[in-house]
Amino acid sequence: MGDFLDNVGRYPRYMVSFILGIFFAFFGWLSPLFKNPVSAVATVGLLVGFFVFIFFTLQAMLA
Question: What is the span of the domain harbouring residue 55?
Answer without folding.
Answer: 2-62
